[in-house]
Amino acid sequence: VKFKKKSKHLLDKLKNLYGPGEIFNLQLSKINQDGIILPHIDHGLDFVFSHRIHIPLVTNENVVFTINKKKYNLLCKKVYEINNLMEHSVKNKSEFDRIHLILDYISCEYIPFVKPPNSKYL
């Protein structure tokens, strides 16, 4: 029940920010202690048309997210939109794993460009 309320609240916020749409990807991302994600740019129409949202669940000040050569320390339980069409990387220089909830939100007008036939989104 708690998750359902929180997820509806998040979906309502996304709709207010970006207009009517759907969450079409939802994942947990873990980076092990002392782990890295090398600099890269995500490719594909789904990234062009969607908003990549990160919600840090477990992190600390020794986890650095770099986007377009600018360094960020993302705080727990805050919501961030990440421009993954720019070069980005992550370094976890801590003793703990980093865990983010990541979702992709897409406006209704772009769904036909990325949605496989007969698929269902959240």
Order of helices and strands: HEEHEEEEEEH
Average pLDDT taken over every residue: 90
Helical/strand content category: alpha+beta
> What is the highest CATH level, the class?
Mainly Beta
Query: What does the overall shape look like?
Result: globular
Content of β-strand: 35-45%
Give me the count of strands: 8
CATH superfamily, called what?
Answer: Jelly Rolls
CATH fold title: Jelly Rolls
Tell me the distance between the termini. 16 Å
Report what the structure shows.
There is one protein chain. This protein has 122 residues and is an alpha+beta fold. The protein has a single domain, classed as Jelly Rolls. Helix content is 21%, strand content 42%. The chain contains three helices and eight strands. The chain has helices at 2-18, 45-49, 111-114; strands at residues 21-31, 36-40, 50-58, 63-67, 70-72, 80-82, 88-92, 98-107. A four-stranded antiparallel beta sheet has the order 1-8-3-6. The chain has a four-stranded antiparallel beta sheet with strand order 2-7-4-5, with no helix packed on it. It is globular and about 40 Å long.
Topology diagram in text:
Layout: H1 2-18, E1 21-31, E2 36-40, H2 45-49, E3 50-58, E4 63-67, E5 70-72, E6 80-82, E7 88-92, E8 98-107, H3 111-114
Antiparallel strand pairs: 1-8, 2-7, 3-6, 3-8, 4-5, 4-7
In short:
The protein has three helices and eight strands, in the order H-E-E-H-E-E-E-E-E-E-H.
